[in-house]
Design a protein that fits this description.
The chain has 14 helices and no strands. The chain is mainly α. α6 runs antiparallel to α7, α10 packs antiparallel against α11 (about 205-225) and α11 packs antiparallel against α12. It starts with a helix and ends with a helix.
């Protein structure tokens, strides 16, 4: 009888151990990877809060930790994030250096989707600076952007901006329409498309449609909370209203645009006011 009970207990033992293993907590990531993930999380929080120096330092820490692990996706993501921070800090030389480190190393197997992100960010910076290499950068980004690429609307908007810069307003309107059609739920790109359409309409003498597009962009930019774009929308609407002979409304929008602009870049004497 005792031998039978012992055999039964031994048979049950593996099942008990298996059940215990299946209910155990998942293993923690390696310590260095966990530190990298925590630094990345804190960096993103600082970026959302607008604390760019802190975000930069934390993304640099993330990059070093990912490099120590030779984690190529993590390296590429950290470099792209650093480029975004430096761009916002008006240091485009450093921003491009981080992006080119990813795009220029064709031997390293960085994920294709991250290469596409880096190419798009580079194109944005060059277009922002009216760089002569901007058209080539936009097309290079487009080549890495497959049919389901999330930057399709953004690429059309970049082409619209370049067309506006070269005073090809009909082409700008066409690219902006493609951007709006491709934007989907992306309010930022839709707002950009509305603003570019408005600028093209205004240049083509289509003042009524221009006003409608500026007001549509303004509504979206308010939802997004983008002060610089809000000021542009307000000023564009003011100019359109003035051309339509609606002077009182034009003055009101101009004042709101000036107030928004002053809030972005406070004057020295205003900063000293009590």
């Amino acid at each position: 009888m005792m031998e039978t009970m012992k055999r039964a207990m031994l048979l049950c033992l593996p099942l008990i151990l298996l059940a215990a293993c299946s209910s155990a907590a998942p293993p923690r990531p390696p310590a260095v990877l966990e530190r990298a993930n925590n630094a990345d999380k804190e960096a993103r929080r600082a970026l959302r809060d607008g604390d760019l120096p802190v975000a930069r330092n934390l993304f640099e820490q993330t990059l070093r930790l990912q490099q120590s692990l030779d984690n190529l996706p993590g390296i590429a993501a950290a470099a792209i994030n650093l480029a975004s921070v430096y761009h916002r800090m008006n240091n485009d030389e450093m921003a491009l250096a981080y992006l080119d480190a990813i795009l220029g190393d064709r031997q390293a197997p960085y994920p294709a989707e991250l290469r596409a992100v880096a190419a798009f960010r580079k194109a944005v910076i060059l277009v922002d600076n009216n760089n002569k290499d901007a058209p080539a950068a936009v097309e290079a980004a487009a080549q890495q952007c497959v049919s389901s690429c999330e930057f399709t609307a953004g690429l059309h908007n970049l082409r619209a901006r370049m067309a506006l810069g070269s005073k090809d307003y009909a082409a700008a309107a066409g690219h902006a329409k493609q951007a709006a059609d491709a934007a989907g739920d992306n309010k930022e790109e839709l707002a950009n498309a509305r603003r570019h359409t408005a600028a093209a309409n205004a240049a083509l003498g289509q003042t009524g449609p221009a006003l409608e597009q500026y007001l549509a962009a303004l509504e979206l930019d308010k939802q997004l909370g983008v002060p610089k774009r809000i000021a542009e929308d307000l000023q564009g609407a003011s100019t359109a209203l003035e051309k339509l002979g609606r002077k009182d409304e034009a003055i009101s929008y101009a004042r709101r645009a000036a107030a928004a602009q002053d809030a972005i870049h406070p004057k020295a004497d205003a900063a000293k006011a009590p």
